[in-house]
Amino acid sequence: MVLGHSHESALKPEKIRRCSEAIDETPVLSEADLRLIRFTSDYYHHPVGEVVAAALPADLRQGKPLHPTVETIAATDAGESENIETLALRAPKQAELLELLIDAGGNGIEAARLTEELPNWRRAAVALFRKGHIGRFEAPPEDFNETLTIAAADRLTLNKDQQQALEKLRGRDGFGAYLIDGVTGSGKTEVYLQRMQDVIDQGKQVLVLAPEIGLTPQLVARLRNRLGIEPALLHSGLTDIERLTAWRAARSGAARLVVGTRSAIFTPLKNPGLIIVDEEHDHSFKQQEGLRYSARDLAIVRAKHLDVPVILGSATPTLEMLQHCREGNYEHIRLPVRAGGAKPPTLRLIDTVRTPATDGISEPLGDAIASHLKAGGQALIFLNRRGFAPTLICASCGHIAGCERCDSRLTVHAQNKQLRCHHCGASRPLDTRCGECGEPVKPLGEGTQRLEEALGVRFPSKAITRVDSDSTQRKGAMNEALDRATQGDADILVGTQMLSKGHHFPKLTLVGIVNADQGLFGTDFRSAERMAQSIVQVAGRAGRESRPGEVIIQTAFPDNPFWSTLIKGGYGRVANEALAEREVTRWPPFTRLALIRSAAHRHRDALEFLELAKRMVADKADDTLRILGPVDAPMARKAGRYRVQLLLQSSDRSSLHSLLRALRPALEQEPSARKVRWSIDVDPIELF
Ligand code: ADP
Ligand code: ZN
Prior knowledge:
This protein is an alpha/beta fold. It is built from 21 helices and 27 strands. The strands form 7 sheets. Strands 6-7-5-8-9-4-10 form a 7-stranded parallel beta sheet, with helices on both faces. Strands 11-23-22-14-21-20 form a 6-stranded parallel beta sheet, sandwiched between helices. The radius of gyration is 28 Å and the shape is globular. The structure holds adenosine-5'-diphosphate (ADP) and zinc ion.
């Protein structure tokens, strides 16, 4: 990718590459696009070439042209006159393929799409080609078309809070950052939609970033129905050609609405008017490997570059955003009550010391499930742990089955009779006897599979749907499960945080949180914030329509002050207290962090590399900088590598960045850098 040129160079001639071919007649990226790319490279201290690569769809990255042609298959005249029924008797696969192609008509079907529908179609195609019943040609892929046949649905009449929020958002067409901090079901989406409509009516484009879009088909359907135009979608479930087509439509302006996950922040826009980040607190906006960027933060930078407004929405805003609002950088817009008359759910704690849980479900929670189902409601049981049980333990010697390559326990997956490591992916057959003493072993604790099984025993006539990354591996499985939940066909939903994100299940009245204590004693300074976010988000699925919602939280520590803060003051009070604490302890957002990680097969290599980095940093540091480490990562060994980290903390962003700017090239020069895998993570959200 050529970003510029010069008539002279300090490099030796043999180091300079020749351009072999100009693939596109005009640059695929504009100056404005490159400005964001250069900013990203600078801010995250990452090579600009890799940022460009992240910004481009795979096909362009591999050197294909912006307007490619694709292999397309169509039935010939001879094929169309073939008798399908007779063919089906002899060669059913051929008949199936031919029928599909005849139905598609003269334009045929792209080979990539055929592969999706009939994975082995090429085998059946051989004979059909030979007989001349089908033909192959190169054609431009189907282009993006935003017109929908459905008319836009009527907008809702906004309530007073929503109306005020919309007025504020309409205050400016140039740059401004707005945080819509609205309780779950307060009608945030409704407010964005009306602001989006304004911008689209002005003939400008709107870019919406959402957490992993596969998880939010409801959001896309809502945008489509309300605005009456087809969004150009950019997410991981697309073929390369589909992705390129959507990207091109955003770039040319053919798509006025562009909706995507994290990497869509780099999508070129012909005529940008507004950027929206939905569920701003979601971790999927931060890329955790390679180019470690935050799409949420880049959205704000990009909006500033483009001089357009950016709207961030959440029921549980991050402390970073709340602090920006306090400092007056962003406008804080609150929607304190649920829209359309739904009441907030009530929260109740169950003490699992006094009323112990069997297979994860305490007696009071079991009774609540029964009574909500009897009243025609639906229950969601939340546990952020997939598998059958998180631990396999020997009843006799207490030995626990661990991963050979990580410092972690193996999770029991009873259905496939396996033990699996959720950190490196290793798996092995389930032991029946202890590897140490030979006595029988048993699964300890609960995962979502065990809960599903236990609920099945307790409620044999009820339909139970489990949603976690195991149950949704098959393409389309997630959407099917969400449909069952939305239609009310599933009585009980069991799942991980995949179920907590943004969904609207009209009949859902009870949320049970099975093991809420995982975050109470977390070591990360973000533990309380995280835990409150996850509980409030999942609780927000309850009682979104006319029937009131109830949330039951099982905890072994009901007296922990966290609970009274959350129950009495909601997320807002937890956030205020956490902010006050961070100010005293000097953690973000009151300071800035950069985490340098190294990993190696030998512990010494990983450690020594960071000791060297520490010396380099200490040489240049001023008194705004605090250096913590190097220390072993909380999970010190993963996939056979030892992991060590060095944390840099500073009250002054620019001095931290000038340090990093000098550090990266210096470390790259070091011979010992070749023995380790290392990285710089600016504004890390996970400290491991
Ligand atoms: P949020 O994005 O804050 O979770 P939504 O925009 O999804 O909230 O709204 C929650 C529910 O309330 C939806 O069913 C929506 O149709 C409804 N709703 C939103 N605004 C209004 C309104 N002004 N009048 C009636 N119903 C509304
Ligand atoms: Zn492992």
